[in-house]
Design brief:
The protein starts with a strand and ends in a 10-residue tail after the last helix. It has a 3-stranded antiparallel β-sheet with strand order 1-2-3, with helices on one face. The model has no long low-confidence stretch (mean pLDDT 96). It is of the alpha+beta class. It has one domain: Double Stranded RNA Binding Domain (2-Layer Sandwich).
Length: 60
Amino acid sequence: MAGKFEVYEDQAGKFRFRLKAGNGEVVASGQGYPTKSAAHKGCEAVQRAADGARIEDVDS
């Protein structure tokens, strides 16, 4: 089963998204957006950014 983005309204009236893996586990979540449309655009931005993204280890 493929993962999915869920867009929802939080208790403060902001729209947020969460990315769920195929098993239902939340693997990422987004900031609060003023509109549902803006939250959808946030999902699309994550999809574009993740396509072909490499993994980098960052030493602290």
